[in-house]
Amino acid sequence: MRRVFTRIDHIGIAVEDLDAALALYERDYDMTLVHRETVASQGVEAVLLDVGENHVELLAATGPDTPVGRFLAKKGPGMHHVANQVQDIVATLRSLKESGLRLIDETPRTGIRNSQVAFLHPATAGGLLTEIVQPAEGH
Ligand code: CO
């Protein structure tokens, strides 16, 4: 059977303050910071840290009225989403929709490091906000 996901790309973690969080992840966990970017369309400043061939993505809100800002207000810092890598995000979205899953993004949008990303609604994804990622060439 065809595999939907090729691997876990990253675990997304909501944080109140990126630099404070980096003290844990960079200094105490000794993870390597590989990327830092503000994704204005999603209202986040994000960093990627390497964990083997996978990543941790730390997300700080650019303001309270953003998806991560609302998440932090409701639940506080912690696990936000899991991102699975796919080879063809358009085909995967079509297939998951046919399977009856509720999509937050019907079409992919540009995510961190020029990846193409889309989110699946937790309601039909086992209670877990699930992102699918097609990395840009070279990542
Ligand atoms: Co993510």
Radius of gyration: 15 Å
Would you identify the regions where 5 or more consecutive residues have pLDDT less than 50?
none
Secondary-structure class: alpha+beta
Head-to-tail CA distance between termini: 26 Å
The tally of helices reads 3
Report the biggest beta sheet as strand number plus sense, adding barrel if it closes: 8 strands, mixed
Order of strands across the main sheet: 2-3-4-1-5-8-7-6
Tell me the total number of β-strands: 8
- Give the topology string: H per helix, E per strand: EHEEEHEHEEE
Descriptive overview:
There is one protein chain. The chain is of the alpha+beta class. 22% of the residues lie in helices and 37% in strands. It has helices at 18-28, 67-75, 89-98, and strands at 7-14, 32-39, 44-51, 54-61, 78-85, 109-110, 116-120, 130-134. The protein has an eight-stranded mixed beta sheet. Strand 2 and strand 3 (44-51) form a beta hairpin. The longest helix has 11 residues, at 18-28. It is globular, with a radius of gyration of 15 Å. The model has no long low-confidence stretch (mean pLDDT 94). Cobalt (II) ion (CO) binds next to strand 1 and strand 5. Cobalt (II) ion (CO) is lined by residues 10, 12, 57, 81, 83, 131.
